[in-house]
Design brief:
Helices cover about 35% and strands about 15% of the residues. With about 300 residues, it is of the alpha+beta class. It is elongated.
Length: about 300
């Protein structure tokens, strides 16, 4: 028992020492280990003791290109696929390259040869004060006793450029997000994309009373060969009508999401075709839809 207590006390002492050491390194503007911020690489500290960060010649300029794309009006969801197609290493992979280790690894129980850019990954990079050369901890700027930011490397963006970027990201967010309809969209967990088999999610459309269900493969870091999308009112009406036909439910009774989920309903949506003229406004192309229900399968407009 005494040995166990002693071991526990020693572990706490070591943890406290490490915490104090990292805090001191942060205060001194030295790199204390961990994931190197995208756009930087480890470099000797100017004092000759320890490490700091310096712009990474292979990725620093790319940060400027991404920032320009944001100011040009591109969304992060639009920018991420371009980075993946160009073979730009995601932050974790670039960190591994700089450490001389292979890219990829395990995430969420899956093994990846290399990680992919997502809108979430981009958001973390673009919102980090490290772009101004700040030492960060928990995503926030570390400040000295006078309240000034502790610098750990040469800034990739000036303070003015960084704050302009944050305003652009915030304006984009405020301009596209609306209050959610109730709690959860009717077909969340029920509508799936035929191209990749992934879930489709509800998204609002600015200026329209209805929204749209869309494939979100890019947000998951995946590539869908045929991403699907469909008006929410059309897809919901189709699903509810097919469910009533399959169960004989009275038309006056409401159909909830929980009812559809508990019944095992699944609707698969194929990618739409371009063209079609005014006929496209008449309603959904049911040849793109497949309604599956336990012991019942109705697809392609049947």
């Amino acid at each position: 028992m005494e040995l166990a207590d002693a071991a526990e006390q020693e572990a706490r002492t070591i943890s406290s020492r490490l915490t104090s050491s990292h805090k001191a390194l942060r205060a001194a503007g030295r790199y204390a280990g961990g994931l190197v911020p995208f756009g930087y690489r480890k470099a000797p500290h100017p004092s000759g003791s320890g490490w700091s960060l310096a712009p990474d010649s292979e990725t620093a300029a790319l940060v400027g290109v991404i920032v320009a794309d944001v100011h040009a009006g591109l969304s992060l969801i639009e920018i991420a696929p371009g980075l993946n197609e160009a073979g730009v290493p995601a932050p974790r992979d670039r960190h591994a390259q700089l450490q001389g280790r292979p890219m990829g690894g395990r995430r969420h129980g899956r093994d990846f040869e290399r990680f992919r850019w997502t809108s979430g990954t981009l958001s973390k990079v673009l919102r980090s004060p490290s772009l101004m050369g700040h030492r960060t901890h928990g995503g926030q700027t570390v400040r000295d006793t006078s309240g000034a930011p502790v610098l750990i490397g040469e800034p990739l963006l000036s303070d003015e450029e960084f704050h302009a970027l944050q305003e652009a990201l915030l304006a984009r967010s405020n301009g596209t997000r609306r209050p959610r309809r109730g709690t959860t969209a009717l077909l969340t967990g029920i509508a799936h994309c035929a191209g990749c088999g992934g879930r489709m999610y509800f998204a609002t459309r600015k200026g329209y009373v209805y929204g749209v269900y869309v494939c979100r493969a890019t947000a998951r870091g995946d590539v869908c060969p045929a991403p699907a999308a469909m008006r929410s009112d059309w897809l919901e009406a189709y699903t509810v009508n097919r469910f009533r036909e399959a169960t004989g439910m009275d038309a006056e009774r409401s159909v909830s999401r929980s009812t559809l989920l508990e019944s095992g309903v699944r609707v698969t949506v194929g990618k739409g075709r371009s063209g079609g003229g005014p006929s496209r406004l008449a309603g959904p192309d049911t040849s793109r839809l497949t309604f599956a229900f336990p012991h019942v399968h109705m697809g392609y407009g049947n």
